[in-house]
Amino acid sequence: MSEVGEKRVAPEPTTFRGIWYGSGQRNTLPGHSFVYAGAKATYSAWHRPMAVYAPAVNKTFFVFGDADNRPAISVFDHADSTFAPPLALGVNFDSNAHRNPSLLIDDDGFLYVFYGYHGNQQPIHVLRSLRPHDISAWTRRADLTGGNGSYANPWQLRPGEILVAHRQPTGWCFKRSHDQGATWSDTVELASFSSYEGTSTVYGLTTGETGPYPRAVHFAGSRLGGGSPEAIRTLHLWARRYNVYYACSRDGGDTWQRSDGSPYELPITENAAEKVHDSGGLGTWIKDLVVVPDAGPLILFLDGDAETYRSQWKIARQTGAGWDIVDVTTSNHMYDGGALCAVGPGDLRLYGPSAPSQPGCDGGNIEEWRSADNGATWTRTRTLTEGVERSHNHVKTAVNHEQSDGQFRVMWSCGDGQSPPDDTEVTMYYFGDGMDAPRRIEIS
Description:
The protein is mostly beta strands and 444 residues long. It contains one helix and 37 strands. The protein is 1% helix and 45% strand. The strands form ten sheets. Strands 3, 6, 7, 8, 9 and 10 form a six-stranded antiparallel β-sheet that branches. It has a five-stranded antiparallel β-sheet with strand order 2-14-13-12-11, with no helix packed on it.
């Protein structure tokens, strides 16, 4: 069990400029130096939550990676539609956007920011606000792992308890704290597939429900490599993920089950995992997971061709007969990052860069898709960023947005997706109800 004493952290002023980052140097398209590159202030699908609406103060708090790859935070005030000046809360030792922050707001209004992780024996750093709903002063809490942790997903599933799901070399795991992050429990392994050269093959994300305690938490994952170590080494299989697997807990993470209620033994192995979707010869990149009231979980993912990057957007929806896989649209890159919004009964929305803007680049123009039948069918209703020559990407939904006035439902990054870029400036946008077009996030 790790623990820490009280240590103040002084935030520094920053700007609403985000990190530009490129990754992957195998199987690149002609004229590209990276498999994916560009605006990564809100990257990636596995960093979640990054925006949370707080009903007590009618504000949406959000985190991002600033231009120097520092974990940054700001807040949108729904009362007057203004943004607070952003603050940088720490330092990352390189420009790797996999170290981006995630955010939790507990029942008492205290903010928690998790950042700095992604292998390299670096721990997940944890900060807690000194005062409720106040971004101006912070204390450092105990690091979440001893090293090699990635993608913290923090949720409050019981009173006074924080559960943080994350990836480690052994698989997808979680830890708990009962004292506001001063100490953390031993690691619980949730899903442990085979590993390759000390790297977990489990890629996943989680979504915690709101409402009465104990709250449910849902997990969707895929497998890196999808074959032998030799296959993973093969050039054309660069970072390909396979299949979609599912698990959930109804009791705050104590016990886990499949969608039919049958129990899992932990850690979940690949053979025991409920396979929602078989990707066949394509790769699968999971993008979002949302729980629709009275309907169940929906999983957004892309089946992509790792040779051409062309991808099919799909929704997995739980039905009484199992899982239904719905085709939504196509786009030109498996690292196009979209998000789902359950706005209300009969009103589901998908926001994502499904309209290309820069050839061969991840991201594009953001389109809005809607479903009135719990995800069984989808209709494109509008293109939000039509005509731009830069790439919008990595859309994130604000947790609890359905409790707000809808002004700030989603946010994302925008920048030059070329590698190397002509311009490394990364801006951010938000979108919600009552808007004809997205608005740039900036000091009002």
